[in-house]
From TrEMBL:
One GO biological process term: proteolysis
Descriptive protein name: Lon proteolytic domain-containing protein
Coiled coil start-end: none
Species the sequence originates in: Streptomyces misionensis
A Pfam family annotated for this UniProt entry: Lon_C
GO molecular function, one term: serine-type endopeptidase activity
Gene3D superfamilies registered for this protein in UniProt: 3.30.230.10
Record InterPro entries: Lon_proteolytic, Ribosomal_Su5_D2-typ_SF, Ribsml_uS5_D2-typ_fold_subgr, TAT_signal
Span of domain Lon proteolytic: 153-238
Domain of life: Bacteria
UniProt-listed SUPFAM superfamilies: Ribosomal protein S5 domain 2-like
Amino acid sequence: MLSRLTRRQALTVCALPIAALFATAVFAPLPFSVAQPGMTANVLGANKGTQVITVDGARARRPSGQLRMVTIVATGPDARVSLGDVIGNWFRTDRAVMPRDAVYPTGDTLKEIEQHNTAQMRQSQDAATSAALKYLGLSPDKVRVTLKLADVGGPSAGLLFTLGIIDKLHGDGHGGDLTGGRTIAGTGTIDADGRVGAVGGVALKTQAARRDGATVFLVPKAECADAKAELPKGLRLVPVTTLKSAVDSLVSLEKGTGSVPSC
């Protein structure tokens, strides 16, 4: 039988590698990214001194409200995210721990990822312009729309770009603004036929929207549950599936007539 001193020494010796293993696990990099609410931008106005939407070949309106696209920001693909970071952020409502591949699905380097996101943004802007002009029955040969939004990539602003173009060219169709003077935010991809697609990160995007004054948030219908998970007080969710459903909901909100869907 080991003496008391010998047993104590044995426990101490065994504890050393366990402590070392725990320390390694805590500080070793893991394949995760930590995301949080990012910036928002009013597509009906200017961002960093440049108008987001400009129109040639047609008279542009000056809407009174705001249509704010929203973003999230995440730790970079080369950032070291440890077990301590994961545990520390897991239960925070203003943070999300996400698989790195879900945040950066394409490219191995920061430059490749930036190129991919820029290409997605360009495609999103082209689709938004096509969808808006098609909705309004205008020819792209006669009306030219230019979209500029610095330091933002990806396709998730597509719906808001489209609504912004419509509001600048047409409003609600009866002399009023689509926003009804409100601050409206939202997210969702768009295709040339006006179909709205899911984007991810909506629970963080709703927080960014409310922080910057939005009272209504347009969300792809498929992401209603995620959007409701951490919904800020004072923010109304409106699910959308198509451009037409988004416009109809905004007009109903503005006029105070008709039904407006909810999550």
